[in-house]
Amino acid sequence: MFAYAQNIKKEDRFKVWAFNDESKVGFNHVYKTALKDNIKDESLSDTENIKGLITVYLPKKEGKCPLILIVHGYAASKFSVLPLGRILASYGYAAAVFTSRKKEAPKDWIAPLSSTYELLKEKNENPEHKLYGLLDTENVGIAVHSLSGSAALYFADFMPFVKAVTAIHPYNGASGFIERIAGKNEELGDEFSEIRGAVLILTSETDVIAYPEKAYRFFKNLNKNTAACFLSFKNINHNDCLDTYRIEIFGGYHKENFSLYSYLITSWFDSFLKNEKHNLELFKKNGKRFSEIGPLLYTDTKRKHGDYPNYDSRNL
């Protein structure tokens, strides 16, 4: 068992209920079925920006919960990231997961992000809705994968209520072939100098879809005063952290890699949305818990990509 798995205490977790939870064959490796305590609410949608219904997971606990928006990548849907939402809810967060109606360029995720946030804020302030008073809409995190990464950073750059972002293999360019399909992220770019939320970037040297040295530019160009951490692992493919079927060059659900990323994402949000700063020992190179992930970082000097570090951080 990996060291990080030993630090997840089941007794610290909450039972979870949901709005619009769904289960789909091929996207049910983590949870085989939808939650039984599940309310269908067709008002949780925006037909202009969102395809289908927003899924919201909540812990069975009293009081407001920090809100986390979870965003899928290119040509994907919410089904690949639903398990992450369910896991985060079990640790005390309200997690909202949606499918973007448009998903061909990074900018396509900005409107759905904004729409989802505003819709949930409206429900949270409506005494007649069952979400009333359950969401802390001024203490927000965003978890994103791939092509939606720059959209989340762009959104957070303008929205001070976004206190933390976890970017999973964020796309900022790749090979010429991939860039002919997904572009080079020219429109949004990689400079987000006003962002105040803490940013965690997870990537891997073996990712052939979102080149890690290009993702590293996100880290370098962030606001120099914000907390940030960049980690590049070995042997983790682009989609290993998703609940999806495996394709050779893209990867797909990988139990240990999914567990690792879920652990890191939860720990990052705990640090900045719950102010549990002891979790930062996991992300500091001289931290007491860095040994849990240090051996998993990429170390081969014969890199496939341009020069970039396997680790970088600031203001932790």
From TrEMBL:
Residues 52-239 form the PET hydrolase/cutinase-like domain. The keyword Hydrolase applies. InterPro entries: AB_hydrolase_fold, PET_hydrolase/cutinase-like. The keyword Cell division does not apply. It comes from the Bacteria. Transmembrane segments: none annotated. Keywords: Hydrolase. One of its GO terms (molecular function) is hydrolase activity. This is Alpha/beta hydrolase.
